[in-house]
Structures are given as structure tokens and as C-alpha cells.
């Protein structure tokens, strides 16, 4: 069974997001061993300077890097990433598995995104859309798309 880890900067606070995450965690348990790790988000002032943002991204990147597995594929969610259809994502994730990546690690940054060093380490930079979403909603959307990818691979009617 493939292991899927989602490293998230920031904690879910809203109950409706937590409920949606719990539902997809339950659904995904049939397909993979899922782990979600929440890492602290750096605190920023109301109007942070570019230097403050860089410092925050560096701090968050250090925390993320300390949790990265030694092997497997790393997928960074970022707006400049590749946009994939659900079937294309299913094919891509399957391709990682076929190539021997028994571990998939998805990275979701905090409110100011991911440090460029993390994006550079990624085997895939993935964009959900050119639109901007709250990172908590991105977590729910990612879980749904991972679930959909497994359903597509299984030939289920869920995707239709």
C-alpha cells in the first residue's frame, strides 16, 4: 500500500474544514496509508516587508525539510505549478508508483506560500488553479483529488 504524506504549514481551525478532511482521510484509508502533518506557520506583521516574508518562508522551509522522507516523490502545491486534469493527476501519481515511489509527499505552504528551495526539491510542482485559495481549503481540495485519482485508477464511477 502506497504511503501518502501531506505536510501542511498551518493548522486547521475551522470545524467545516476539519470535518471535510476527516471524511477524505476515512475514504482514503482503503487506498493508501495517509498521514497529515501540520507544521507551525511563522508569524507575520499586518503589512510584512519582503525581508519579513523571506524570513518566514525560510523558517517554514526548515520545518518542512526536517519532516521530508528520505525517499519517494515530492509534490509541491504552488500557483506556478503545472495544472493537471483529474485523469492526468491519476496517471501522474500512478507513474510515480510504477517508477518505485512507494511514498508520495505533498507540500502545502502557509499564507505566503512555499520557499523556493522546497519548490526546487519537488519532483512535481502542482497548481490547483490560477486562482488563489486559502491553504486550508487547498488541503481539502488536494485530499479530494488524491481520492479521485485512486478512484480513477480503480475504474470506479466516482469520477463520472
Strand content: 15-25%
**Mean pLDDT, nearest integer?**
93
| Overall radius of gyration | 15 Å
Number of strands: 5
Explained architecture:
With 160 residues, this protein is of the alpha/beta class. The protein has a single domain (2-44, 53-128, 136-154), classed as Alpha/beta knot. It is 44% helix and 23% strand. The protein is built from five helices and five strands; from the N terminus they run βαβαβαβαβα. β1 (2-9), α1 and β2 form a beta-alpha-beta unit. α1 (15-28) packs parallel to α5 and α3 crosses α5. It is globular and about 50 Å long. The two termini are 25 Å apart.
Summarize the entry for a quick read.
This protein has 160 residues and is of the alpha/beta class. Helix content is 44%, strand content 23%.
Features:
alpha/beta; Alpha/beta knot; 5-stranded parallel β-sheet; 5 helices; 44% helix
Amino acid at each position: 500500500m502506497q504511503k501518502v504524506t501531506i505536510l501542511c504549514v498551518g493548522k486547521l481551525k475551522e470545524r467545516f474544514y476539519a470535518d471535510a478532511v476527516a471524511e477524505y482521510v476515512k475514504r482514503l484509508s482503503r487506498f493508501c496509508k495517509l498521514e497529515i502533518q501540520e507544521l507551525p506557520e511563522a508569524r507575520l506583521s499586518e503589512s510584512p516587508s519582503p525581508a519579513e516574508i523571506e524570513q518566514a518562508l525560510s523558517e517554514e522551509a526548515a520545518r518542512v525539510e526536517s519532516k521530508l522522507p528520505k525517499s519517494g516523490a515530492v509534490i509541491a502545491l504552488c500557483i506556478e505549478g503545472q495544472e493537471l486534469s483529474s485523469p492526468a493527476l491519476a496517471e501522474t501519481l500512478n507513474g510515480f508508483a510504477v517508477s518505485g515511489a512507494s511514498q508520495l509527499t505533498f507540500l502545502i505552504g502557509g499564507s505566503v506560500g512555499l520557499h523556493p528551495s522546497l519548490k526546487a526539491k519537488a519532483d512535481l510542482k502542482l497548481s490547483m488553479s490560477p486562482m488563489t485559495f486559502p491553504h486550508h481549503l487547498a488541503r481539502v481540495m488536494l485530499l479530494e483529488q488524491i481520492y479521485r485519482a485512486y478512484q480513477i485508477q480503480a475504474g470506479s464511477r466516482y469520477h463520472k
